[in-house]
Amino acid sequence: MDANTASVVSTNIRGKIGIITICNQKKRNALSKAVLDGICLALSEFERSRVTVAVLRAEAGSQVWSAGHDISELPLHTDPLGFFDPLEAALRAVQNFPGPVLAMVEGTVWGGACDLAFTCDILIGEPGSSFAITPVKLGLPYNASGIMHFINRVGLNIAKEMFFTADPIKAERALNLGILNHLVPKPELESFTLAMAERMASHSALSISVIKEQFRLLTNAHAITPESFEMIQGMRRKVYLSHDYAEGIKAFMEKRAPVFEGN
Ligand code: YXS
Q: Cα separation of 166 and 27, whole Å?
């Protein structure tokens, strides 16, 4: 990891368990390219080091697990969530890591970070955890693979509510909806998460890796015609080239409410 990446992501290997800590609190752990590259590099390093279970967390005491994509790095006039963009690469790195990735969620989760947490295999939270997906606050066209992550995680109705309201889902409801695998008191969050990681690491990594890959293939298996794919891309282009998207980003940077005009 280069110095820039290492300044916002730290890693720690304990036997077969690898821990990735996002440490960018001054920007509320926003997912900058450096953070996202750091997550990808850490998972690659874990694979080389024969780590079989990964934990993704924020620094202890964080009020915000991650504020989502670094808005100052969102591109205008082009797809902000392109296949090769840092957030998408990190989501695929989590899915392709050949072992369980546990999201240890301390604090609130926003936007693309919610997609990142939902892409993890297990989510363990504390009473201050909440989850919000917020493209409609920016006028941003989320992408089909990301929407599928939400449908797969919470089902159609809740996914629609999350996208259309951008409201945070708080910890208790997140547990009831199956977003959280476990909701534990904040002081126990780390020990509970690491104990589960240890149990997973004690089992056959080969068996787990093949079962995880089958989960990925089966949940991603949705036939879509080339025409439908092209229609989605065309619709999304209208949005990311719109006044609304430019206004959404500008309003955030100017710390004011956006004025959307629907074009
Ligand atoms: O003013 P300074 O320079 O101190 O910076 C402030 C914020 O601008 C910065 N910051 C961010 N910078 C870039 N990208 C972000 N996502 C981001 N979030 C925060 O961090 C400094 C402290 O922020 P502040 O004062 O607001 O902290 P707070 O504790 O009062 O509030 C914490 C949050 C998370 C509630 C608040 O920062 C917030 O609402 N952040 C934006 C959350 C959000 O809408 N995220 C979505 C990002 S876009 C994304 O992920 C997807 C592409 S999508 O749009 O599709 O969901």
A: 20
| H helical segments located in the chain | 3-6, 33-48, 86-96, 112-119, 135-138, 144-154, 156-165, 171-176, 189-201, 205-219, 226-240, 243-253
Domain-wise residue ranges, the chain? 3-186
Which ligand 1 atom is nearest residue 87's CA?
52
Residues designated catalytic:
69, 112, 142
Span 105-123, average pLDDT? 98
Output the pLDDT for position 121: 98
Selected from 3.55.40.20, 3.90.226.10, 3.10.350.10, 3.40.80.10, the CATH number assigned to the domain covering 3-186 reads 3.90.226.10
pLDDT at 135: 98
- 2: pLDDT confidence band, cut at 50, 70 and 90? confident
CA dist., res. 119 & res. 97, Å (int): 11
Calculate how far, in angstroms, residue 213's C-alpha sits from the geometric centre of ligand 1: 33
| CA-142 nearest atom, ligand 1 | 55
Q: Does the global pTM surpass 0.70?
A: yes
Per-residue tokens: 14: 């304990």
Over residues 16-61, the pLDDT tens digits come to 999 999 999 999 999 999 999 999 999 999 999 999 999 999 999 9
The predicted structure's pLDDT at residue 156: 97
Whether ligand 1 lies within 6 angstroms of the CB of 194 is answered as no
Tell which atom from ligand 1 comes closest to the C-alpha of 133.
56
Compute, in angstroms, the gap from residue 96 CA to the centroid of ligand 1.
28
**Cα 31 to middle of ligand 1, angstroms:** 10
State whether the beta carbon of 131 lies less than 6 angstroms from ligand 1. no
- What pLDDT was estimated at residue 41? 97
